[in-house]
Design goal:
Distance between the termini of chain A: 49 Å
CATH topology of chain A: Sodium/glucose cotransporter
Largest sheet of chain B: none
Number of domains of chain A: 1
Largest interface: A-B, 61 and 36 residues
Order of helices and strands of chain B: H
CATH architecture of chain A: Up-down Bundle
Distance between the termini of chain B: 57 Å
Helix content of chain B: 40-55%
Radius of gyration of chain A: 22 Å
Shape of chain B: rod-shaped
Strand content of chain B: under 5%
Shape of chain A: globular
Number of strands of chain A: 0
Radius of gyration of chain B: 19 Å
CATH class of chain A: Mainly Alpha
Oligomer: heterodimer
Structural class of chain A: mainly alpha
Structural class of chain B: mainly alpha
Largest sheet of chain A: none
Chain lengths: 536, 44
């Protein structure tokens, strides 16, 4: 307990100093929204990485790896190759260049000015504001689950304290404060995760012995009974991919791997960071540190999550899911049971850092989406952008906190954190990705096609999320209320579709709708220009 | 290899490390490229 208190005190002190420095240096809207566009590449890369990787990745997806095995490592491949390399090299440089040229401060504004269309700004803004809280609540649940379990305090109390911390740091500092704090916290996360993987392999007798023990675990006494349900769903062991076409396979491949892996390209809170550096050179440099950072984050979390089964089995005879009681509880239970007490305190700070960095960026994105993009630029509401944004941030955070509290009442056997995260990532990809690519690389793409693509992508995805995909539709309750079932295709010849993630349907629909609209209206005749902006 | 027999899992690890190496090499090779120092036209 002493380790926890000392660690927490040091963390809060550092964060307070960094928030104060950020606050002092925030002089105008661009500082507040884009950190003055002069960020150091390492600070930018660490900030991007720390925002990308949250408690959702470590606790939520780490827990999913504990349940489903090392197949989740495919998400690490996409995290690094798509989420860092393609994101920075193919998307980041162009985004920065066009964003600076058009003078944009947020992603909805980027789309609006690139396509010369105000509607897009308002539509994107309100969509982000309405659905980002689901992701933010998943991140919150990740840290609150850990802290509540680690120090034995009630979920609701911990939720309140963490949310208050996030509120103070983000609302006071703006993006400049966030990015300095992110870099400091990114360093903390890197050190903590590096120790975790070394300790885990050492604990289990080395890399080869530990992996071999995990491979053999399904045939050990008592394990078959514990994995009976999983095996029926297609599970084939923790060091094997599940049976192709089975429910577990669909869940891993379409929801957990593709949803988040591809969705990372169209995340408003991540894309905005490309606009915080002064040239493409900073992004080239940031690729280097970003790649190393991610391999130590999700690579470690997914490997340790899977290996925790060996540790739990050796000491209790139970697999991780049974020993921890829930998917989201696997990583917290593993740290508490098998790592030294002092590391539990440090890991708590690592997770706090992972949660706060992502939450800050999400709350910042929600605030700008509602305050600047929707209220100020679309509805022309009176008042300063910073004030409107700050109020919107608090509203966004409050909604996220309520959702996190409600999610604690859901069926604990589900990977709630991972599903909530995938839902938002998939929705963003289906809505924004085709238009985002067109904005960067297709000069003649007309605004009508962008609007049609965004509306089709979001509408199809939301329909799928609320009514077809059983994991999400069953949790969101609307399908149950209207049709008294967890999926409208359940029990029909289309039953397989209930296992398919929304991104698999929504993203192609968004592409097709955009292409049809482009074919119908032809190349745009208006020139790329900045739309009139309501100044403070 | 390394106690894992499923080739698709091994491939995921190889590609993870390979992607990280790609990022490192790209960062080093392009370390000084891409500087244009535009100031942007944000709303001040």
């Amino acid at each position: 307990m002493n380790y926890v208190i000392i660690g927490l005190a040091v963390y809060v002190l550092f964060m307070a100093v960094l928030a104060y420095l950020g606050y002092k240096k925030t002089r105008n809207t661009a500082d507040y929204l884009l950190a003055g566009k002069q960020m150091h590449p390492v600070v930018m890369a660490m900030s991007y990485g720390a925002t990308f990787i949250s408690t959702s990745a470590i606790v939520g997806f780490g827990g999913a790896a504990g349940q489903f095995g090392m197949g989740l490592v495919w998400l690490t491949v996409l995290n690094i190759f798509v989420g860092i390399f393609v994101a920075f090299v193919v998307f980041g440089k162009k985004t920065r260049e066009i964003g600076h040229r058009l003078g944009t401060n947020t992603m909805p504004e980027f789309f609006a000015r690139r396509f010369n269309c105000k509607f897009i700004q308002g539509y994107s803004g309100i969509l982000i504001f309405l659905f980002m809280p689901i992701y933010a609540s998943a991140v919150l649940k990740g840290i609150v689950d850990y802290v509540a379990k680690y120090i034995g305090v009630d979920f609701t109390v911990v939720l309140f304290v963490i949310s208050a911390l996030a509120a103070v740091f983000v609302v006071a500092g703006g993006l400049k404060g966030i990015m300095y704090a992110d870099a400091f916290q990114g360093a903390l996360m890197f050190t903590g995760m590096a120790f975790l993987i070394i300790y885990t392999y050492d604990l289990l007798g080395g890399v080869k012995a530990a992996n071999a023990a995990l491979s053999q675990l399904p045939s050990m006494p008592g394990v078959a009974e514990q994995t009976e349900g999983l095996v029926k769903g297609g599970f084939a062991g923790w060091t094997s991919m599940p049976k192709p076409g089975s429910p577990v396979w669909w869940n891993i491949v379409t929801t957990l791997v593709a949803g988040v892996g591809i969705g990372a390209l169209a995340q408003p809170q991540l894309s905005v960071k490309f606009m915080t550096v002064k040239s493409g050179r900073e992004l080239n440099r940031a690729v280097l540190s970003g790649g190393i950072f991610i391999v130590f984050m999700t690579g470690v979390a997914f490997t340790v999550g899977a290996l925790s089964n060996v540790a739990f089995y050796n000491s209790t005879g139970q697999i991780a899911l049974k020993a921890a009681g829930s998917n989201d509880g696997i990583i917290p239970a593993y740290i508490k049971s098998f790592l030294p007490e002092w590391f539990g305190g440090i890991f708590l700070i690592v997770l706090l850092a992972a949660a706060i960095t992502t939450l800050n960026a999400l709350v910042h994105a929600m605030g700008t989406a509602l305050g600047r993009d929707f209220l100020k630029q679309s509805l022309h509401m009176k008042g300063k952008t910073i004030s409107l944004t700050r109020v919107s941030m608090l509203i966004g955070l409050l909604i996220s906190v309520i959702l996190a509290w409600l999610s604690s009442k859901l069926d604990i056997s589900m990977a709630i954190i991972a599903i909530g995260t995938s839902l938002f990532y998939g929705l963003c990809a289906s809505t924004f990705l085709p238009s985002y690519i067109a904005a960067l690389y297709v000069r003649n793409f007309p605004k009508t096609a962008a609007v049609v693509s965004m509306i089709a992508g979001s509408a199809v995805s939301l329909f799928w999320i609320f009514f077809v995909q059983e994991k999400t539709a069953g949790s969101l309750q609307i399908c149950r209320l209207l049709f008294n079932t967890t999926s409208i295709v359940k029990g029909t010849v289309l039953n397989t579709l209930s296992m398919v993630d929304a991104i698999v349907i929504g993203l192609p629909m968004s592409v097709i709708a955009g292409l049809i609209a482009w074919a119908v209206v032809g190349n745009k005749n208006e020139v790329e220009t900045a739309v009139p902006v309501t100044e403070d | 290899m390394l106690g894992i027999t499923d080739a698709s899992i091994l491939l995921a690890y190889v590609l993870s490390v390979g992607s990280a190496l790609l990022c490192i090499v790209y960062g080093i090779v392009n370390w000084n490229k891409g500087e244009n120092n535009d100031k942007g036209g944000g709303n001040k």
